[in-house]
Write a structure and sequence with these properties.
Blueprint lengths: L2 H27 L8 E5 L2 E4 L2 E10 L11 H12 L8 E6 L2 E6 L5 E7 L11 E10 L7 E8 L8 E4 L16 H9 L11 H10 L9 E8 L3 H10 L7 E4 L14 H12 L5 E6 L4 H11 L4 E7 L4 H12 L6 E4 L2 H10 L5 H10 L2
Parallel strand pairs: 2-8, 9-10, 9-12, 10-11, 12-13, 13-14
Antiparallel strand pairs: 1-3, 2-3, 3-6, 4-5, 4-7, 7-8
Helix pairs in contact: 4-10
Length: 370
């Protein structure tokens, strides 16, 4: 990004912080602090027995219906409330995990990020999901309390591989390649969770790959997307409605950038690097589409982590000719399998050839899903 844009961003950010500070003073002077309802927006975390990564956000609560079949107008109202946030900076929180206690603070955008080592390590169990309780202790205008809970994924030690997948136009129809991205806006702002369209057999593919060829494995799945983090609740709901496997959901912050040191990395790249570095002994499969930059990003990741990427699966969202132009680039990547596909039936057949899933189980899931 050119230097003058950083000067402008710094100015905008300082003005934003000034207005937030004035707003907090007005709330305190008016004596309205007791009437404020605070919400802790939680995101699923992930980690190992000796460390974990967790993010969330503290906001002033707003009314969001998030009903599966609500009207376009109701969905637009919900979208407005999701995007027009009143964040609470410098809030103090207590994190409780398996008898351990940690404290953290929100940043200027209301986010908290915890990358925490654990000693002694957590005890492993049959359930890879660990419950986390989050308690709001204090805000800039005094004590306020709020409680929330979420889960942290700690994959079992015998997991054979992990899967990192894109969402938009890989799992769910978004229309990223539409002119002026009008389909993206319409699908995001006007369509409720149950009205969003996922691709045929996509749930069966990821459920089969999660359990592996023997059907008894737990191979963790991570969803990484440039969709706004404000829509986390909506995305979680449509993944659940369409029976996609449960997994950490890493979405993008669309606010004013406040971490300028990350300027050389996209959100998706940062997220994938964090996952790979958190699980240094676990190989991964990358799944994306040809609509935007997934092939180029995955090529870069495979080059950076030789031997860690078992396969790259790229779904065609436009035309096979474009995929053929991408194939020479992907074939240079340091990964043994580059698979290009148009349907998840094709993807499942290719994946079974690499012993990533059981094809019969995939077909069974397809029948059950109809």
């Amino acid at each position: 990004m050119p230097p003058h844009r950083y000067v402008l961003l710094n100015l905008i950010r300082k003005l934003d912080q000034l207005f937030d500070g004035l707003r907090f003073r007005m709330i305190r002077v008016a004596g309205r602090t007791k009437r404020i309802q605070v919400k802790i927006a939680t995101y699923r975390g992930f980690g190992r027995a000796d460390c974990f990564f967790l993010q969330g956000r503290v906001l002033i609560r707003k009314s969001i219906r998030n009903r599966p079949f609500q009207t376009a107008w109701q969905q637009l109202v919900d979208s407005y409330h999701r995007l027009h946030t009143d964040e609470i900076p410098r809030a103090r929180l207590r994190i409780l995990l398996d008898g351990r206690e940690f404290e953290t603070y929100t940043d200027k955008e209301g986010y908290f990020t915890l990358y925490q080592t654990i000693s002694p390590p957590l005890e492993t169990s049959a359930d890879p999901w660990k419950s986390v309780k989050i308690e709001l202790i204090e805000t800039p205008w005094g004590p306020l309390t709020s409680l929330a809970s979420t889960k942290i994924l700690i994959p079992p030690s015998d997991a054979r591989f992990g899967v990192i997948t894109d969402l938009d136009d890989t799992i769910i129809h978004t229309g990223v390649t539409s002119p002026l991205k009008w389909e993206v806006l319409y699908n995001t702002l006007f369509k409720s969770a149950a009205r969003r369209k996922v691709f045929e057999e996509v749930a069966a593919f990821f459920r089969a790959i999660k359990t592996g060829p023997g059907g008894n494995e737990f191979n963790p799945i991570f969803y990484v997307s440039n969709s706004p983090r404000n829509f986390n609740d909506l995305v979680k709901k449509y993944l659940r409605i369409h029976k996609l496997p449960k997994g950490p959901l890493l979405l993008r912050d669309i606010g004013i950038p406040y971490k300028l040191h990350t300027r050389d990395y996209s959100h998706k790249k940062e997220s994938i690097l964090r996952i790979l570095e958190t699980f240094p002994d676990l190989p991964f499969i990358l799944v994306g589409d040809s609509g935007e930059k997934d092939p180029y990003l995955y090529y870069e990741i495979a080059e950076r982590f030789p031997g860690r990427i078992l396969a790259i699966f790229i779904r065609d969202v436009q035309h096979l000719r474009r995929l053929k132009r991408l194939k020479p680039l992907l074939e240079k990547a340091r990964t043994p399998a580059i698979e290009l596909f148009e349907t998840y039936q094709q993807a499942a057949l290719l994946a079974s050839g690499h012993s990533f899933l059981n094809l019969a189980y995939f077909h069974q899931l397809c029948i059950e899903g109809k």
